[in-house]
Amino acid sequence: MSEATDGAFPDGFTWGVATSSYQIEGAVREDGRGESIWDRFSHTPGRTVNGETGDIACDHYHRYRDDVALMRELNLGAYRFSVSWPRVLPDGRGRVNEAGLDFYDRLVDELLAAGIKPWVTLYCWDLPQALEDQGGWPGRSTVDAFTELVEAVTRRLGDRVRDYITVNEPFIMAYLGYGLGLHAPGRRDMTDALAAGHHALLAHGRALEVVRANVPGARAGITLSLAPTYPLDADREADHEAARRDDVLFNRWFLDPLFGRGYPDDLARITGGTMPQIRDGDLALIAAPGDFLGVNYYTPTYSSADPAISDSLPHPDPGVERTALNWPVEPGALTDLLARIQRDYAPRSILIAENGAAFDGDRVIDGRVADPRRTAYLAGHLRAVHDAIAVGSPVEGYFAWSALDNFEWAEGYGKRFGIVHVDYETQGRTIKDSGRYLARVATSNRLD
Ligand code: GCO
């Protein structure tokens, strides 16, 4: 049988799990770590559900050995984690906190000893508050500060870590953080959001250069949150137009400049902001090819001409499965997305850098967590990835979100995405059935 029909994934396919620093580490005041915008934001009343913060989170900073052991038990070959910028540069730039780097040093050694390949995300949203106080991502100087972080991390880890993600989900960071104010730092200005997005892309371009200069045989790329956009009512022209606008917002804002097309003409109008100043050389730096494109996919977008309807996350099928965040579950949309990326942008390689789901009702009973809906979610999406590979999408790996239940940003701890359950009272970990499922697929390298 051919690969396309027997459910096999390509030889050497990467199977992993992903996390991010602020969502799991805790230990926010230990070993010289500085304050991040997520510390400040989550401690501001009214910003997160129940005022929850990442102060303790999964206590991964102290329990990383146990967590690596769980990944090993699941036979996963790769772990994608992010580096906390204020742990390494407490003031955002300048003085390097060696004790902060030591943590990642220990983690990398632990992973390598377990036969797990580390994938380091250089930025997943925990900007040092000191830099926010100087203007944050809407200010161009943050790009220079970021290169100091990339220097420090690659000089310390580059002898052992080859795979880097530069910037994670610049859309969410810029749009939710600076435009809508729903994420840290909680600012609400679309002109700032557009500038933040531009600077995140410049930071990516500069990071590629630094990683390649410091790490022999490095592989580096950006990860984007992407969602195919469809008209809610396929017979309604206005819904088609809404889907086109949402495609600019959710996908083309970042894909177009990364692949050398510059920004979409109507980006400013669609966001309601003003475009930042784009200097000579900016677009070339942004379009320097990465070694892969990281795709984070969770749910499609159905667009309506009526914004109130669009905001309610509608779906043409009223009975569609929905996650605890009300996100429609539609694996076929991932196949569509991957086909479209190949048709319009043709990256040399693709990594599914995040995919997963929160569902209510995970309970530990006799040392087991039965989570059939999460297992079905993963199975459906792996089938979708397999289908895309069969028609030529160059997907080289899949990282489930997430290794552990964790701090789901403004949603707090109530929304559990883990393939491993965390009891936040005791910090006990229990592998969920979905984790066992992923382990089987990873071990056989084929659909279960
Ligand atoms: C990321 C993600 C995660 C979220 C996940 C579920 O890019 O790292 O946004 O932080 O927890 O996407 O919402």
TrEMBL record:
EC numbers on record: 3.2.1.21
GO molecular function per UniProt: beta-glucosidase activity
EC category name: hydrolase
Gene Ontology biological process terms from the UniProt entry: cellulose catabolic process
Entry annotation: catalytic residues: E169 (proton donor), E354 (nucleophile)
Catalytic activity: Hydrolysis of terminal, non-reducing beta-D-glucosyl residues with release of beta-D-glucose
Gene3D superfamilies in the record: Glycosidases (3.20.20.80)
InterPro entries cross-referenced by the UniProt entry: GH, GH_1_N_CS, Glyco_hydro_1, Glyco_hydro_1_beta-glucosidase
Residues reported to bind substrate: Q23, N168, Y298, W401, E408, W409
Keyword Oxidoreductase appears in the UniProt entry: no
GO cellular component term, pick one: cytosol
Domain of life (superkingdom): Bacteria
Stretches assigned to coiled coil: none
Protein name (Swiss-Prot/TrEMBL): Beta-glucosidase
Source organism of the structure: uncultured Thermomicrobiales bacterium
